[in-house]
């Protein structure tokens, strides 16, 4: 066991605009609704701009992360997150297409779902299979979180010491293991304007 306690980690992203609402505004909306649902003590990262993933699917993303303590089942948390996505106009038609708001449940404390072999199977899946296959159940921790700078860089602001219960590496260690150019490609934005702070 680690010292993760009952922390829940969530990632938010958007790369769509309806002409009136920017991607940054969609992420801020999601971040605020998560705090409304799970408590004002929730820790929220700043906004970050990240290259679209996978490359070529559309505009760059705006990403953020939230960490909170709330004793709810993963399914109950996921239901709330899906409701927030739906209220932001999210339609689950294309797995990796443009989306107004994408909210992923990344982890809950030391919980592994549904079990270590299944989580490891999805975590170790070849990249070419990741595009055409996806699980029919919730997998925790999220099987790709250790591979994605756009998840780990925002998580550094809210839960740098959370330790992956299988990999036994903290958020900081997983981020530091990524190629430098991937980490550097995640740029902090001004929350008020959605513009690059550099």
From TrEMBL:
Residues 95-106 form the 7,8-dihydro-6-hydroxymethylpterin-pyrophosphokinase domain. Pathway: Cofactor biosynthesis; tetrahydrofolate biosynthesis; 2-amino-4-hydroxy-6-hydroxymethyl-7,8-dihydropteridine diphosphate from 7,8-dihydroneopterin triphosphate: step 4/4. Keywords: ATP-binding, Folate biosynthesis, Kinase, Nucleotide-binding, Transferase. GO terms for molecular function: 2-amino-4-hydroxy-6-hydroxymethyldihydropteridine diphosphokinase activity; ATP binding; kinase activity. Its EC number is 2.7.6.3. Transmembrane segments: none annotated. InterPro entries: Hppk, Hppk_sf. It holds the Pfam family HPPK. GO terms for biological process: folic acid biosynthetic process; tetrahydrofolate biosynthetic process. The keyword Kinase applies. NCBIfam families: folK (TIGR01498). Catalyzes the transfer of pyrophosphate from adenosine triphosphate (ATP) to 6-hydroxymethyl-7,8-dihydropterin, an enzymatic step in folate biosynthesis pathway. Belongs to the HPPK family. This is 2-amino-4-hydroxy-6-hydroxymethyldihydropteridine pyrophosphokinase.
